[in-house]
Specification:
The structure holds 2 protein chains of 2 kinds. Chain A has 2 helices and 5 strands. Helix content of chain A is 13%, strand content 21%. Chain A has a single domain, classed as Roll (Ubiquitin-like (UB roll)), CATH 3.10.20.30. In chain A, the strands form 2 sheets. In chain A, strands 2-1-5 form a 3-stranded mixed beta sheet, with helices on one face. Chain A is of the alpha+beta class. Chain B is of the alpha+beta class. Chain B has a single domain, classed as Cytochrome P450 (Cytochrome p450, Orthogonal Bundle), CATH 1.10.630.10. Chain B is built from 17 helices and 12 strands. In chain B, the strands form 4 sheets. Chain B has a 6-stranded mixed beta sheet, sandwiched between helices. Chain B has a two-stranded antiparallel ribbon with strand order 5-12. The longest helix of chain B has 27 residues. The chains are: A alpha+beta, B alpha+beta. At the A-B interface, helix 2 of A face helix 5 of B. Chain B: It comes from Celeribacter neptunius. Chain B: Belongs to the cytochrome P450 family. Chain B: InterPro entries: Cyt_P450, Cyt_P450_B, Cyt_P450_CS, Cyt_P450_sf.
Chain lengths: 104, 392
């Protein structure tokens, strides 16, 4: 298990126990985190699980992930990631994930 | 493990007329069942359909026998898996991204929607399906693909012929003759517009593919554009007609949608209620357990998203009703997994943000005098075939 904190654009924070081996996207869905839709279910085909993660432990986005991020709804920043591509491990304990602004 | 039940009674004609009572019963009694007339295995519960779509290693999209191949004169990305599928899809995905919709298309689509809605005669009864839903879907798609030279009528005819060919499981030669004819006309247009797109690139799908960093083969660009024509007209057309029907037959909801300005919710509920693409096919690559049943390799499994979208396990007892204000749950109208609908965001914007508010603003007292006159049809694709409304 690892603790992950999701931070909404308005500053609201939710810290959850994340099961190792799951993706951060799956953890967010399991805990009903607002702003993660994950419409394609983790196939890296929709960019609706886009978040900002400023933490070296998560590695960097693959080329395919970068391409898909270009199709994200909210502003893409250097810290942009698709949470379906980040796998939870003990090493990520304490990870902080920022949700993007909703566009509408 | 239980033997796979076989349903000998259900016919394609029944499913085309009204599949929903059949699916309701299947969800309850035989959620995984071989339907003898189609020789395909129907899967009707939401948890199963979602899992199948998200597990492409076991449930492949590749169907070597698909009539899509002769209909499109190509093996298209809809029937590919893995990296090959991703490369082709990503070649045109930027054209459908929220960013490009905002920067390039939003204003144009609003203008087009205004043009088409303003042509409708106030005070008269028209068939909104024929006079608005189809033509506006065709026009918007023509621009998005970079084919604005094509007329609404051509776009709609090509689309229908591709669909008829792709569903031609009985291999009727006449249907393939008609799709061949459409292919020839489309190919001729594509050739004609290539110079325009190489000289003046824009964010249309054809332009983006032609001018990509590592362009995919031209034959696959053609195939992809055809897939977008085949899929990109009937779906927004049917969704629009379905949503307008849902709102006009539930005037209390319509009032509340206007008051709260929640047209996107009206859209989302419409495609949940009657998914324009009702079913999808996948081929098993190995033996696999679905529910209580073991399915062998090489079987064709149909995920029935139309049924998943009304599954009692998610929507409770009233999933059969159009209710914009129900508790929000994700639906499967756009599918899931690698083949999740590439046009989902475009559809939400063009219909939910632009067309619906505009249409009801211009005709706030639009009525559907006799809902019983609306004919619903379709097994693979479903929607109303007509929508006689009085415009006021």
């Amino acid at each position: 298990m690892a603790k992950i904190t999701f931070v909404q654009p308005d500053g609201r924070r939710q810290t959850v126990e994340a099961e190792t081996g799951k993706s951060v996207m799956q953890v967010a869905l399991a805990h009903g985190i607002d702003g993660i839709l994950a419409e394609c279910g983790g196939a890296m085909m929709c960019a609706t699980c886009h978040c900002y993660v400023d933490d070296d432990r998560t590695g960097t986005a693959s080329e395919g992930e970068e391409d898909m991020l270009d199709c994200a709804e909210a502003e893409v920043r250097p810290t942009s990631r698709l949470t379906c591509q980040i796998k939870v491990s003990e090493a990520l304990d304490g990870l902080v994930v920022h949700l993007p602004e909703a566009d509408e | 493990m239980l033997d796979l039940p076989v349903n000998e009674a259900v016919t394609l004609a029944d499913l085309t007329r009204d599949p929903y009572p059949i699916y309701k019963r299947m969800r309850a009694e035989t959620p995984v069942v071989r339907v003898a007339q189609t020789n395909r295995i129907f899967v009707t519960r939401a948890e199963h359909t979602k899992w199948i779509k998200e597990t492409p290693e076991i449930f492949s999209s590749d169907d070597p026998m698909t009539p899509m191949k002769p209909a499109f004169q190509a093996h298209t990305l809809m029937r590919k898996d893995g990296d090959e599928h991703r490369a082709e899809r990503m070649a045109m995905q930027p054209s459908f991204s929220p960013k490009v919709i905002r920067t390039d298309w939003g204003e144009l689509y609003t203008k087009l929607a205004e043009d088409y809605v303003s042509r409708l005669p106030r005070g008269e009864t028209v068939d909104l399906f024929k006079d608005l839903c189809g033509p506006i879907a065709a026009r918007i798609l023509a621009h998005m693909l970079g084919l604005e030279e094509a007329s609404d009528e051509e776009m709609q005819r090509w689309s229908q012929r591709l669909i008829d060919g792709a569903g031609n499981f009985g291999e009727d030669p006449e249907l393939f003759r008609l799709s061949d004819e459409a292919n020839a006309e489309m190919n001729a247009l594509f050739e004609r517009v290539i110079p325009r797109h190489t000289e003046q690139p824009n964010n249309s799908a054809f332009s983006v593919m032609l001018n990509g960093r590592n362009p995919i083969p031209m034959s696959q660009m053609y195939a992809n554009i055809k897939i977008a024509i085949g899929g990109g007209i009937n779906e927004p057309r049917d969704a629009l007609a379905t949503i307008v029907y849902g709102l006009l037959t539930n005037p209390d909801q319509l009032d509340e949608v206007k008051r709260q300005d929640v047209w996107l919710d009206a859209f989302e509920e419409g495609v949940r209620w009657v998914a324009p693409i009702q079913v999808s096919g996948r081929r098993t690559t190995q033996e696999v357990q679905i529910g209580d049943h073991l399915i062998g390799p090489g079987e064709t499994v149909m995920t029935i998203q139309a049924s998943a979208n009304r599954d009692e396990a998610i929507y409770g007892a009233d999933g059969e009703e159009y209710n914009v204000f129900r508790d929000k749950h994700p639906h499967q109208a756009f599918g899931s997994g690698p083949h999740h609908c590439a046009g989902a965001q475009v559809a939400r914007r063009t219909l939910g943000q632009i067309m619906l508010p505009l249409l009801f603003d211009r005709f706030p007292n639009m009525t559907l005098a006799d809902p019983a006159r609306v004919i619903w049809s379709g097994f693979g694709f479903r929607g109303p075939l007509n929508l006689p409304v009085t415009l006021n």
